[in-house]
Amino acid sequence: MNNITITAATPEELRSGELGRKLRHYNHGFVGEYPEQQYIRLNARDDSGRVLGGLRGFVFLYWLCIEVLFVEEDVRGTGLGSRLLAEAERQAIALGAKNAKLDTFEWQARAFYIKHGYEEYARIDDYTPGFYLAYMKKPFRS
Fold this sequence. Notes:
By secondary structure, the chain is of the alpha+beta class. It has one domain (17-139): Aminopeptidase (3-Layer(aba) Sandwich). Helix content is 29%, strand content 37%. It has four helices and six strands. The protein has helices at residues 11-16, 18-31, 80-94, 110-115, and strands at 38-45, 51-60, 63-71, 99-105, 119-128, 131-139. It has a six-stranded mixed beta sheet. Strand 5 and strand 6 (131-139) form a beta hairpin. The protein is globular, with a radius of gyration of 18 Å.
């Protein structure tokens, strides 16, 4: 074990997905077979093609994991964020998701997610000085 080196993964190693397949095989021993991770990538554009917002997430182990939901400031309050979230949830449920999870800083969209049925289940105070990071989740109704 003395001759082990740690290096950055090569682009070929990343493309191969070998590490993910090994983890998936290991996980199967505990939770059984499950679908591969599925990505949800949404953009909202106006008539001129300008991106007004979008959502990036994925479904893994029957959870929708929302990484980013962003709406440009000049169209906030128009329902666009709600539409993006609803579409992501719809797609996630179609992919077998039973729940959703995300994290958000207190100055971002905590109240927005609460309005849409998410609950805060944990937080890290002073994640960045003076501000907490909230962890939120939502069960999908059957």
